[in-house]
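User: Can you help me understand a structure? I only have the sequence.
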Amino acid sequence: MKALLLFLSIPFFVTGQASAQPQPKAGAEAFARYALEITLDPGNHHLEGRGSLWVPAANESREFIKLALGKNMRDLVVEVAEPAECAGVVTLERQLSISTNNFWNARPPKPFPATQPARLRVLWQGGEESSFVFYLGPEGSFASGINTAWYPVLEAGLGTGALSIAVPAGLIVHANGLQRGSESERARGIFRYESTSPAHFAFVAGRYDAERREGAIPVSVYQLRSRSSVNEYVEGSRKTIEVLSSEFGPYPSGEFAIVEVPEAQAKKAGFSGASVAGFIMVTGSFLDQRFNLAYYGHEIAHQWWGNLIRHSGTRGSMMLDEAMAQYGSLRAVETLEGADAAERYRRIGYPGYIPDQSALGYLRVLAAGKDYPLSNIPRNASRSIADGKGFQVWEMLSLTLGRENFSRILRDFIRLNAFRKVTWEEFWQAVERGAGGNLKWFYDQWFERTGVPEFQMSWRQEGDAVRGEITQAEPFFRATLEMQVESGDGRKQSAMIEVNSAKTEFSIPVKFAAKTVVLDPHFRVLHWTPESRASSQPLK
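Assistant: Let's start by predicting it. Here is the structure, written out as tokens:
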């Protein structure tokens, strides 16, 4: 959940994060496979669904298979088609649930044998009531399977397969994966999509004005009303995907789209934007703005961190999700808009984006005494810890290891762990292996310790050198800091100084009279500054 303060006035944004799930086995056989036919009647807020569900084999026999289906759905019927010895209508045993979904044990006439996959036939209907990221109606329909199980979802959650969605003629449907079918089918209101990458299925349907750009990754924008900024959105998304693909590896979905959903109905359904596999749902307030690179960089980065790489447990979860998506956003800003824009982003936030997702936002949390270690941020803590401090720690680690080296580590980790549930410890071990050295000093001071350093500097010029000292209070931080000496006529001389104790002396050779000496002029190391000290104090 993301609170949007300035860029958007609507209070909710959700990403494709699921509750704890069993870790899937490696290989395609680990995931459920679906072939579903959906008929939508938006005017009556109604959905009818039928189809098949192939369930992966298990190592042991099973008395039942667990399914989830939204509480706004009803009349679920499940029968076993294969294996033959289990065939027949199953007994559905509803389990206690406090979520938006009902959970069912689907018990066949005979137990499912070990090492054999099963094929289920399913039938259900409903959808008259909205729920979390779900609504059917003439204003526009939307459904995210990770938030509300609008179709029968196998316990492990992820699945591949095909969707056929029928709507009244004149409506357009967009869903996960690659669009299939023919133009003549779509003209009759039949839309087919195939998802070869495991995902929770999601779709939207409405009277859309669609703008599409072909390419290595096709990019589309679906609007409920036309806006002149659509080209800016298409090109901005395309360029952002290119940058993030360089940082994290190949884009994980066949296409990308930004899709408008009706404002009032989305708010009632608990969100103003949702990032799902392959596309982002947004309300009109988003699209009424200019394309905001920091915001969309963050949400597109969730296609890798949150959708493709999923965390197991709470330890480090915010760093592998929100903070890494924010780091992707920062890389997009620096690559596409330059170092000055990235520096402002780090210091005080990106224009039009959430200002507290910056160093200043985090330092205000720290000053208020509400800080937590990055390795163990509670979900109810301020998002500014992950999105204000966490992304800058990833930035510092990238600079410590080298940009390309850190990117290689991330790309390798994603390639080896796509669609798995990974632990924080697994990720950090992969970082240390890729770095080829012990990073305990970095880990201890930035992930296990709260707070940031505050450096004091004094200097003097002695002939052709500027000498001085940098001091800090305990607990001491180790950092490599740029020192920039500038003359009255604009000449500059820089040096890199490593600090790791209470006092570090320095000497910088210069060939001019120094007027100013600035510590870390581009704010590459997260630390207190006199400006942030003044800005973080409560208003009187």
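Now, to help you interpret it: The chain has three domains: 32-291, 310-448, 455-524. The domain at 455-524 is CATH 2.40.30 (Elongation Factor Tu (Ef-tu); domain 3). Let me know which part you'd like to focus on.
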